[in-house]
Amino acid sequence: MNAAALIASRRALVFDLDGTLADTVTDLWLALNAALRDCGLADVEAGLVRASLHGGLDGTAQAALLLLRADSAALPQLCRLYAEHYRARAHESSSLYAGVRELLDVCRVREVALAVCTNKSRSEALALLSKLGIADHFACVIGGDTAARPKPHPAPLIEALHALGCEAHQALLIGDSHVDAQCACSAGVEFVLHAGGYGGPHELGYPVAARFLRYGELG
């Protein structure tokens, strides 16, 4: 089954956020480099953020310290400054992937239940969704700080399914990384890969029920 047909067959869809619904790398990259400079460290390339974003802000900060061979004791300060700079940017350079809004509108007409399951903090996720003008499409938003454990553990996805009132076989998780694929597999939910996101089109090591490169393919 192709991605469009599979997505149309389910009564609930759970989306990852960064790299799946929205392109957020620029804001995160600029905020991280500002925080690194505050800590007396060098800048990093945007590719580091893209590759480590599945681990949330903390995961990206850890990746930067490792790349720069900096003292891991700087992590708490770096994470705090990173979050502060990110909030200050107010998601000014982040944008929806083309076709996302149209898909969400179709889902609303079809009465498909929608949720977001992200390793961002819930407050940052809600702020971003509001900035992008799509917050009201989602019945619930599960953040990396609100579930028992973040992805790839299945807890956030299971919590989202409970909130939507649906069983695993009635839903899909749509994401862009191996973290999303592992989370879906562990929760018994089929996974659809947004191959145009940050994880890329490579094999993920976990089952992929369908994949798409652009949201226009789903119309």
Description:
Helices cover 44% and strands 13% of the residues. Helix 3 crosses helix 4. The protein has a six-stranded parallel beta sheet, with helices on both faces. The chain is built from nine helices and eight strands. The model has no long low-confidence stretch (mean pLDDT 95). The protein folds into two domains: 146 residues, 3-Layer(aba) Sandwich (Rossmann fold), CATH 3.40.50.1000; 65 residues.
Query: Count the strands?
Result: 8
Under the CATH scheme, the architecture of the largest domain is: 3-Layer(aba) Sandwich
Please tell me what the overall shape is. globular
Number of domains: 2
| Cα Rg | 17 Å
Q: How many strands, what sense, and barrel or not for the largest sheet?
A: 6 strands, parallel
Helix content: 40-55%
| SSE ordering | HEEHHHHEHEHEHEHEE
Quote the CATH topology of the largest domain: Rossmann fold
In short:
This protein has nine helices and eight strands.
What order do the helices and strands come in, and which of them pair?
Blueprint: H1 3-8, E1 12-15, E2 22-23, H2 25-38, H3 46-52, H4 56-68, H5 75-89, E3 95-96, H6 100-110, E4 113-117, H7 122-132, E5 140-142, H8 155-164, E6 171-175, H9 178-187, E7 190-194, E8 210-212
Parallel strand pairs: 1-4, 1-6, 4-5, 6-7, 7-8
Antiparallel strand pairs: 2-3
List keywords for this structure.
219 residues; 9 helices; two-stranded antiparallel sheet; 13% strand; alpha/beta; Rossmann fold
